[in-house]
Structure formats: structure tokens, C-alpha cells
């Protein structure tokens, strides 16, 4: 190995002299340590880069190297999927025994020409002639999206062509063919001239050759890996499994008979691999309801969003299957990644299919078919035909006047014609429109569909649109639009899908566990990996179950997608290497970083990037040196990345990390997660942990909860691989404490993840002496979890510990957070005076700079929290006006901070207060604001906002109350927070009373009242009893004693808590009952002193009600 060239390839040419002076040879490289390199004078960055590169070298690299060009980072080999064909001339040995050598040479020549002609006709590559054998590749040096199909078509054509050849003795020739598909490593060309071939490493060529030996004369035999990619394009016969030389397990083989008679290409390709529809009953039901409305003339739009492979097209197909027996028109539109800027491409393709265009049709025939199609539905087809014909590139030959309008007028008239066609179809029958992969629709098509969405609101039309999450449809706010976001399947649903695919035969536990872990609920991945395992020979059937006979292969890009992705990359062979380096950087990469990594001459690099953009593989913003490039599709980036050898990937990641740290410190500071990723993949694990931690803290500061969880979890995973030391434990404590904050915001105070993070942090703190700066936030986090779970005794103890620790430390910011825990604890306990006591102490300690502590402890600002809790507490204590002022102050402060979690805290408690004040309009305003924030990035709050809106909407009438009951009950079942749940039970029970469903309300109140004794969370205890009393009065029973008992208990609790407002409410209810029973004096004596205590809020409903009753009682 040339050490100087190797160092140059790493961008470290300046150290070549040092290596030579110290006699560092290829044999020495594996024995070099970090300390050795430091002794040679290499800084940390270059040391890490050299060690990562050494780790990626094998013995072959040491002793039989390929030179590394220091200026271009030339890739010597790559990984890719190939379909390999092996052709054999049957009986060639017998022929050579009785034919003259010259005649035999002529036969071989004709045979080779015939074979090569059919291979090249479909753009295959003849890799090698071996006398009577021919080796061919489909997918190298250039890939197409349908390589397996091309290979099989070529195979059938070869057998037919060779069968037409005869020897000079008039003997017929015959060929047999084997085809296999699989992952290989393709290296440099070896040999020269006719002997030149591509060096391919992998079992696929050998498999193709072995399959050829199974074939009869004139037959094509394919591997299961090839069959998987063909769908039902060909008629096939299962040849069973065969023991082939060189393969440890039996190999499945298939015989190709002919092309199939499938109705359409889509059905042929997808029919076999059609996924079982699992876990989507609710979505299908929504679509069927949309169809019902559409048929009634109320047009609907159903938007189906989800990541690739999540099952969007499968659900759309399920809908078409359900409607197959109905009288309707089906129009299907498909977006294409290759035509995102081709005006009206999906629309014109639909018209081509509907008109029945054939490839061999002349322009005249196509025009006739178009005329017939438009005449069926367009009132004035003569004006529409030239417009649409122009889009379809059909000359009208003077039959129609050429449109003379400008581009915009022409487009408008084209839109009018297309919408007129839709209206004409809808006038005859209901129409189902399916627009799939709308994320690939061109702007003109999207503009047309904007108008379609508007128009169909008054037509019997259902438009179903599928798209990936990166697409933002403009129609979501329309009243006739329904949005369905497809989530990944849960583990149980994935298990059901696996069971369907295995025909009810259970897989081995370890196999199923790996499938579930690797596929993570993506239906396509579940299906493809399960099928790969079932068809790989790694499992054997034993009775009614499978048993493992090998190891599970790793999940990569599904083989069904490999060819199409590689085809896009191969279109720019000369600059593919730049795409690969860019792919290692990421989905988006800057010119500066790419240039520093690739170390290529600037003119050459710019030319390569220009070609990348021209090939529509990437978008470019700005111009070098400020240019930013983005891969057009994430899967294209993945394919480019996966085509690199693993050792090369690690080397590039390590180089990128070094370049970022040394040459782009500002970006490293602003985007530590980028540096963390490259350090991780480059093997710089110690550095990577630090960068993941820093990235998590930055994400916490921005309230980017999902990102923070991902970054910090990654850091913890890597940290676990490092040696156990006290320093490592301290790093873990910091990571766990940082992780608790976004877990709390994203998954709720009660979540197991939150408790696990803080429990682990406390455990490590205790192991090393309980340093205050780390122990305090650990205990604070645990307090949050126990409080939310209703374990109030433990929560109170932890809150007291926090005060003790904070006072001992002398740190005012810690003491503020200790009081923060105290006022929230007392709030849950219903100790309203104590709440105000601790909020007052908190305000005395609060400084604006303490806002940053929200990210260390609770995820929201302490002053906002104190003000909001004090607002509710003041209402409880009997100061409704002061309470309202404090609630609004909390909202104002939170919005001033521009901190969503703090805003949500203020809004949610303001909603509580407005409900107590019976101010539905103000409550609705707060809910709408909460809902917007929740949908913009705080999904944990969405159920709360939904429940609260349902409550406010239910106040209008008995019918609305009945409708609201279901929504509230569903949301209530999902909410376990002790602070919120009691309040929501009160709301639900109140709505039940309005709906005349007292029994349902009482059934909800009973366990909530019983739970108070268990948890000690008494904040809603008085209200729970008061509402129970109201509902009992509204029930069929004539017995007033149960209601009276609940009212008395409500009054007792309220007075224990000094909750004058709750005392007033309960006393008003009891006074009304006693008055009804005839105890008017007793009722007056009960209510009068309670009412007289108040000094404000006399315009609030509770005080107005009490005043009216007192007037009636006098």
C-alpha cells in the first residue's frame, strides 16, 4: 500500500513525511493507537480520522491496494442490486465433436450475436462471452426501474431467437437461461479487450449459473429474489426448492412460461404483493361515510397523509374494492417523481388511459379516441379538444382551429374544459376520484385540483388524495375536507399482519421480535421483511408453526425499490461520486462543506454539481460558494448512501466531522446534531456523546420535544458503549436529566419514560454522593411524575426535600423551583391558601433570567405557572375578580415569552377559571388558541383541547350535550393526569346533566370520588360531591337525602379548604333543596352568611344565583 497516497485520500497529505520518517508501513497501520499518533504530532481531528480509516481497511486493502487519488476521492467499488443472467448453449460439446472448427466458430458467433442483440435491446450489459456461455447484468453500469422485468423479457426473446438458428448441418440450436437478483459489490473493470469484465462479488452470479443448470432447452428459470420483483407480469410455474452447489440451504426456483394477460400494469405489479388491510378499519369507515355524503350531492375531499410504505395506496384500493358493486365513475390520477414540473401530467395520463390510447396508435386514431371520450361528458367538445390535444401532443391536422390565446388564458380554458368534463360525468353517476402521490403533482395540476376541490362541494363527487407528510395541501381548512393521518401500526397490529402473511403459522419468537423491531410498524416493511424471511429458506414448517433454520437478514431499502432508485443515480454516471459524498453529508448539503470534503478541483466540482441539478436529482438554492443542494427525494439520497461500501461511509463521516469542527465552527455550534451524526457514523463515539447532549439541550430550548428526545436518547445509547467510570456516570446523569424535560412535554407527566429518566438520574446521584446541582433536578422530575400519578404523599415528601436541599444550597433559583413544586402540590391537595403562600415566595425569588430554568426542571416558566395557579386559587378562596385579572396576566406573560409550553399552561388554567365563572365565550377563545398550538407541535395537548371544545359546544342545547358526551368520554378515558382528570369528570358529569343522562354522570363521579381517598388529591372533591347532588336531584328518585348528603360533604370540604366560592356553590344548591322541601329559614340561614362574606364578583353567575335565591327566601 502506498502510505502517502492513502493519507492523501484522507486529506492528510501533509503528514506523509512524518509517516515515512517513522517507517510506518501498511503492516504497521493496524497496530497504531491514539497515543502513537499523538506522539507523531497529529492533532485530535486527524488522529480520529486515521484510526477510523484503519478500522475500515481489510487485509486486501493492506497488501493488494487500489490507489487512492488524493484529489477526487474516487470510489473503487460500490454496493448495488443486480439482476444477473447466465445463458448456456445446450449441447455445444456434442456439436463441437462433429462440426468443423470453422463451422463451430460460425455457430458460436451467430449464437453470441443473437444473445447480445436481445440483451442490448433492453439496455442490458453483456459482461462476458465464455464460448457457449454468456454472462449479462441488468442494473449495471446503468440501472432502470424494472431490471428484473427487462431480464426476463430478454430471456424469453433469447430462447426464441436462438431456437431459430441452425447449424450448417441444419440442426436446431437451443438455449437455457438462469436469472437471479441480489446485492453485490461491483468493482473496477478487470482484463482487457474482449476479456474485460466487471469484478462482481456476491452470490448472485453463481446463483444465476446454477439456476441455468435446472432449465430445460428453451426455458428460463429465475430465483425467488427475481420473482419477487415481477408481480404478475409473467406466467410462472413453481419448480420447488433445489439443493444447488455452493448454497447451504435449498433454493427456490421458478419457470417462466410467457407474458401474463393481466388487465393492467399496476394490477400486475401490485396484485401479488397486496398487503392485508390491518388496523385501518376506522379510516375505511371514514372514507365510506365521505362517499355516502358525496352520493347525496355533498361533495367530499378525503386527504390521506403518511410516510412511504404506511399503506396510503392500500386504503385507497380498499375503498375502490368496497365500491366495486356500486354504479359510479372511477377516475384515477397518479403523481410521478419524474414529472413534478410537467404541466397537468397526472391529468393527461388519466385521459390517455380513459381514451384507450395504444402505443401503436397514429395521431389520427388518438384524436378520434379523444373526441369520443370528451363527447361523453363535455357539453361543447369542439372547444375543448384542441386545448387538450395540445397537452397530449396530438396534432389536429387543421380539423380544429389552433388556440390563439396567451398562456394564462389557454390554461384557464383548459381548466374549464376539464372541470366541465367532471361535471358532465357527475351529472350521470357519482364520481370517485383518486389522486395518488400528490406530493409529486406538478404546480398546474395542484392549481387545477384547487378548483376541483371548490367545485365538487356541490357535486356527487368524492376526491381521495394520498400524499407524504412533506406535502402541505392547501385544502385542509375547507368544511367538506377530511384529513386522515396514517400512523404506524402498533405492535399488536404488526403481529396480526405477520400472522396473515405466514398463513396463521406462528413464527419463532426471536424472528418475530426482530421483524417487529426492525420494521417499527411500517406495513410495507413488515410485509417485505416477513416475506423475505418466509421465502429465504431460513424457516422450516413443522406442523402448524415455523422454526428457525438460519439467521434473519438485516433490513435495508426494500428490493422492490432498489432498481428505480439506482436508475435515477445512474443517469449521471460521471458525477455519481459527488452524489454519494453529498449523500453522506445528508439530505441537504452546502457547496462549502462538499468542496472541503471532496477536495476536488473547483471547476470540476461545479460542473459535477450543475449536472446533478440538471438531472433533477437535486435542487440548488443560491450559487457557489453559498449554494445549498437538496436531494429531490430522501430515498434517492438513501440509495446513493447505501451504494457506498461501509468502510468508505465511515471514512467519509469521520472526515466530515473533522471538517465541520475545524473549518465550520459556527455551524457546529448552531447544529450540533449534524456533527453528532457524523461523529457517530465515523466511529468518534466519545465526541459523538457530547454533541448529542449539546444538540438535545438546544432542542429543549426551542421546545422541539421530538428532536430533543431523539438526540438525547442517541447520546445515552452511545454512552452505554463506553467504559464504566465515574465520569461516564456523571455524563449519563446530565443526559437523563435533559431527557426528562422533552419526555414530560411530549408524553405527559405520568409517562413511564419520564419516571425512568429521573429514577436513573437519582440512582446515579446517590451512587456518587448526591451533588446538589444534579440531585435537585432528579428529585424535581420524580416529584412531577408522582404528583401527576396521584401519589400525593410521595409528591409532598419530595417537595419538602426540594425545599430543604434548595435552602441548604443557598441557590435562589433552586429555591424558586422548590416553591414551584410546593404550590403545585398544594394545588392538587386543594390547599388554596398554601398555594398562594408559595406563589408569593416564588414571586419574591423570580427574576427574568430564571426563565431559562424552565428547560431544566418543568418545561414551562415559573412565573407563568405561579400566576396561573394563583388565579384559580384566588377564585377558590372567593375572589373572582382578582382571579380573572391574575389569569389574564399569566396569559399575557406567557405570550410575551413566546414559549409554547408556558402559553399552554396559562391558557389551560385560564380555561378552568372561565368555566368556573360560566364565561363560555372566554373559555372558547382560550380553547381555540390551545388547539392551534397543540396542532403546531404539542400533540399531547390535542385530546385536552378536543375535550374542552366538546364541553363548551355541549352547553348550547340538550342535543348538543348528547353529542358532546361521547367526545368528552373518549378523551377522558385517555387522560390520567390527576390534576386534570377530576376537573374533566366534573365537566362530563355536568354535560350528562344537561343531556338528561344523570346515570351516566353519576357512574363517572363515583370512582372519581373514591379515588380522592386513595390519592389525596382533593382539589376537585367539593365539586364532585356538589355535581353528584345535582344529578341525583335530576334522576327519577324522589329521595332527597342522597343529594343532601353530597351537598353537606361538598360544603364541609370547601370550608376545610377555605374555598369560599365552592362553599357558595354547594350552599346555594343545598339551600335550593331545603327551600323545595319547605325549610326556607334553614336555607336562608345557610346561604346568607356565605354570600355576605364576598366583597367582589357580584356580577358573576354564582353570586347572582345566590342573591336571587336569598331574595326568594326573604
TrEMBL record:
Domain SAM intervals: 1-42
GO biological process assignments: cyclic nucleotide biosynthetic process; intracellular signal transduction
Organism: Phyllobacterium sophorae
GO cellular component: cytoplasm
InterPro entries the record matches: A/G_cyclase, AAA_16, Nucleotide_cyclase, P-loop_NTPase, SAM, SAM/pointed_sf, TPR-like_helical_dom_sf
Entry GO MF terms: adenylate cyclase activity; ATP binding
Signal peptide, first to last residue: none
Domain of life: Bacteria
Guanylate cyclase domain span: 83-212
Protein name: Adenylate cyclase
PANTHER family the record matches: GUANYLATE CYCLASE DOMAIN-CONTAINING PROTEIN, TESTICULAR SOLUBLE ADENYLYL CYCLASE
Entry keywords, A to Z: ATP-binding, Nucleotide-binding
Amino acid at each position: 500500500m502506498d502510505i502517502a497516497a492513502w493519507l492523501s485520500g484522507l486529506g492528510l497529505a501533509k503528514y506523509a513525511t512524518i509517516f515515512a520518517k517513522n517507517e510506518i508501513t501498511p503492516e504497521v497501520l493496524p497496530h497504531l493507537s491514539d497515543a502513537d499518533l499523538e506522539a507523531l504530532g497529529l492533532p485530535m481531528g486527524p488522529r480520529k480520522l486515521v484510526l477510523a480509516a484503519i478500522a475500515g481497511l481489510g487485509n486486501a486493502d493492506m497488501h493488494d491496494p487500489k490507489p487512492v487519488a488524493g484529489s477526487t476521492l474516487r470510489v473503487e467499488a460500490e454496493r448495488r442490486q443486480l439482476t444477473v443472467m447466465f445463458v448456456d448453449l445446450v449441447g455445444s460439446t456434442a456439436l463441437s465433436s462433429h462440426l468443423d472448427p470453422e463451422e463451430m466458430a460460425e455457430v458460436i458467433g451467430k449464437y453470441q450475436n443473437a444473445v447480445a442483440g436481445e440483451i442490448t435491446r433492453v439496455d442490458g450489459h453483456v459482461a462476458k462471452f465464455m464460448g457457449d456461455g454468456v454472462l449479462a447484468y441488468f442494473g449495471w453500469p446503468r440501472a432502470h426501474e424494472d431490471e428484473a422485468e427487462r431480464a426476463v423479457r430478454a430471456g424469453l426473446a433469447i430462447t426464441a431467437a436462438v431456437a431459430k438458428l441452425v447449424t450448417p448441418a441444419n440442426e436446431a440450436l437451443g438455449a437455457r437461461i438462469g436469472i437471479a437478483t441480489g446485492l453485490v459489490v461491483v468493482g473496477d473493470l478487470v482484463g482487457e479487450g474482449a476479456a474485460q469484465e466487471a469484478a462482481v462479488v456476491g452470490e448472485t452470479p453463481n446463483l444465476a449459473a446454477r439456476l441455468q443448470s435446472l432449465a430445460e432447452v428453451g426455458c428460463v428459470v429465475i430465483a425467488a429474489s427475481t420473482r419477487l420483483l415481477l408481480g404478475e407480469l409473467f406466467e410462472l410455474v413453481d419448480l420447488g426448492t433445489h439443493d444447488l452447489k455452493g448454497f447451504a440451504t435449498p433454493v427456490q426456483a421458478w419457470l417462466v412460461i410467457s407474458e401474463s394477460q393481466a388487465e393492467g400494469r399496476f394490477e400486475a405489479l401490485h396484485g401479488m404483493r397486496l398487503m392485508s388491510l390491518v388496523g385501518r378499519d376506522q379510516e375505511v369507515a371514514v372514507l365510506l361515510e365521505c362517499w355516502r355524503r358525496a352520493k347525496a350531492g355533498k361533495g367530499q375531499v378525503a386527504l390521506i397523509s403518511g410516510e412511504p410504505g404506511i399503506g396510503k395506496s392500500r386504503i385507497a384500493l380498499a375503498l375502490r374494492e368496497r365500491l366495486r358493486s356500486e354504479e359510479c365513475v372511477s377516475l384515477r390520477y397518479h403523481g410521478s417523481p419524474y414529472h413534478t414540473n410537467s404541466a397537468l401530467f397526472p391529468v393527461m395520463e388519466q385521459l390517455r388511459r380513459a381514451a384507450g390510447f395504444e402505443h401503436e396508435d397514429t395521431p389520427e386514431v388518438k384524436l378520434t379516441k379523444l373526441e369520443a371520450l370528451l363527447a361523453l361528458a363535455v357539453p361543447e367538445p369542439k372547444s375543448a379538444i384542441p386545448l387538450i390535444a395540445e397537452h397530449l401532443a396530438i396534432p389536429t391536422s387543421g380539423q380544429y382551429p389552433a388556440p390563439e390565446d396567451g398562456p394564462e388564458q389557454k390554461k384557464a380554458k383548459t381548466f374549464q374544459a376539464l372541470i366541465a368534463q367532471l361535471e358532465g360525468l357527475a351529472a350521470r353517476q357519482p364520481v370517485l376520484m383518486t389522486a395518488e402521490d400528490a406530493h409529486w403533482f406538478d404546480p398546474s395540476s395542484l392549481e387545477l385540483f384547487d378548483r376541483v376541490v371548490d367545485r365538487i362541494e356541490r357535486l356527487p363527487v368524492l376526491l381521495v388524495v394520498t400524499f407524504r407528510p412533506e406535502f402541505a395541501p392547501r385544502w385542509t381548512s375547507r368544511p367538506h375536507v377530511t384529513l386522515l393521518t396514517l400512523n404506524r401500526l402498533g405492535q399488536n397490529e404488526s403481529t396480526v399482519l405477520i400472522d396473515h402473511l405466514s398463513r396463521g403459522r406462528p413464527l419463532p419468537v426471536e424472528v418475530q421480535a426482530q421483524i417487529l423491531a426492525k420494521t417499527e410498524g411500517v406495513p410495507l416493511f413488515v410485509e417485505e421483511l416477513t416475506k423475505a424471511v418466509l421465502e429465504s429458506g431460513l424457516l422450516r414448517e413443522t406442523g402448524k408453526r415455523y422454526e428457525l433454520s438460519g439467521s434473519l437478514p438485516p433490513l435495508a431499502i426494500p428490493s422492490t425499490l432498489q432498481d428505480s432508485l439506482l436508475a435515477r443515480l445512474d443517469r449521471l454516471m460521471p458525477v455519481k461520486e459527488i452524489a454519494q459524498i453529498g449523500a453522506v453529508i445528508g439530505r441537504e448539503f452546502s457547496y462549502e462543506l462538499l468542496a472541503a470534503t471532496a477536495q476536488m478541483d473547483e471547476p470540476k466540482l461545479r460542473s459535477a454539481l450543475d449536472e446533478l441539478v440538471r438531472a433533477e436529482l437535486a435542487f440548488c438554492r443560491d450559487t457557489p460558494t453559498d449554494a445549498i443542494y437538496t436531494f429531490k427525494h430522501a430515498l434517492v439520497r438513501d440509495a446513493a448512501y447505501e451504494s457506498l461500501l461501509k468502510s468508505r461511509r465511515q471514512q467519509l463521516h469521520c472526515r466530515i466531522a473533522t471538517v465541520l469542527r475545524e473549518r465550520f465552527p459556527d455551524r457546529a455550534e448552531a447544529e450540533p446534531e449534524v456533527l453528532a451524526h457524523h461523529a457517530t457514523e465515523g466511529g468518534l463515539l466519545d465526541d459523538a456523546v457530547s454533541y448529542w447532549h449539546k444538540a438535545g439541550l438546544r432542542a429543549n430550548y426551542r421546545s422541539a420535544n421530538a428532536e430533543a428526545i431523539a438526540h438525547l436518547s442517541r447520546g445515552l445509547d452511545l454512552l452505554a458503549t463506553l467504559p464504566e467510570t465515574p465520569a461516564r456516570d456523571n455524563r449519563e446523569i446530565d443526559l437523563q436529566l435533559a431527557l426528562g424535560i422533552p419526555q414530560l412535554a411530549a408524553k405527559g407527566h405520568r409517562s413511564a419514560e419520564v419516571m425512568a429518566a429521573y429514577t436513573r438520574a437519582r440512582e446515579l446521584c446517590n451512587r456518587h454522593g448526591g451533588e446538589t446541582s444534579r440531585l435537585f433536578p432528579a428529585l424535581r422530575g420524580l416529584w412531577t411524575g408522582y404528583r401527576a400519578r396521584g401519589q400525593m404523599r410521595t409528591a409532598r415528601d419530595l417537595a419538602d426535600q426540594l425545599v430543604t436541599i434548595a435552602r441548604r444550597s443557598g441557590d435562589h433559583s433552586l429555591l424558586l423551583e422548590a416553591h414551584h413544586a410546593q404550590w403545585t402540590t398544594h394545588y392538587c391537595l386543594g390547599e388554596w391558601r398554601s398555594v398562594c403562600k408559595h406563589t408569593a415566595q416564588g414571586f419574591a425569588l423570580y427574576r427574568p433570567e430564571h426563565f431559562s430554568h424552565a428547560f431544566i426542571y418543568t418545561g414551562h416558566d415559573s412565573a407563568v405557572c405561579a400566576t396561573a395557579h394563583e388565579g384559580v386559587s384566588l377564585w377558590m378562596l372567593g375572589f373572582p375578580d382578582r382571579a380573572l385579572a391574575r389569569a389574564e396576566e399569566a396569559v399575557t406573560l406567557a405570550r410575551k415569552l413566546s414559549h409554547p409550553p408556558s402559553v399552554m399552561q396559562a391558557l389551560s388554567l385560564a380555561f378552568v377559571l372561565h368555566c368556573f365563572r360560566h364565561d363560555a365565550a372566554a373559555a372558547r377563545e382560550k380553547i381555540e388558541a390551545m388547539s392551534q398550538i397543540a396542532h403546531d407541535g404539542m400533540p399531547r395537548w390535542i385530546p385536552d383541547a378536543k375535550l374542552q371544545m366538546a364541553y363548551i359546544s355541549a352547553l348550547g342545547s340538550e342535543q348538543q350535550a348528547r353529542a358532546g358526551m361521547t367526545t368528552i368520554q373518549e378523551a377522558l378515558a385517555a387522560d390520567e393526569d390527576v390534576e386534570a382528570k377530576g376537573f374533566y369528570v366534573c365537566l362530563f358529569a355536568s354535560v350528562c346533566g344537561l343531556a338528561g343522562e344523570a346515570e351516566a354522570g353519576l357512574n363517572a363521579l363515583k370512582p372519581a370520588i373514591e379515588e380522592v381517598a386513595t390519592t389525596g388529591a382533593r382539589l376537585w372533591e367539593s365539586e364532585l360531591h356538589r355535581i353528584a347532588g345535582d344529578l341525583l336531584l335530576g334522576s327519577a328518585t324522589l329521595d332527597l337525602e342522597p343529594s343532601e348528603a353530597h351537598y353537606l360533604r361538598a360544603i364541609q370540604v370547601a370550608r376545610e379548604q377555605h374555598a369560599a366560592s365552592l362553599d357558595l356553590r354547594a350552599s346555594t344548591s343545598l339551600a335550593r333543596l331545603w327551600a323545595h322541601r319547605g325549610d326556607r329559614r334553614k336555607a336562608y340561614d345557610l346561604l346568607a352568611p356565605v354570600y355576605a362574606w364576598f366583597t367582589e364578583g357580584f356580577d358573576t353567575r354564582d353570586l347572582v344565583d345566590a342573591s336571587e335565591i336569598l331574595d326568594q327566601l326573604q
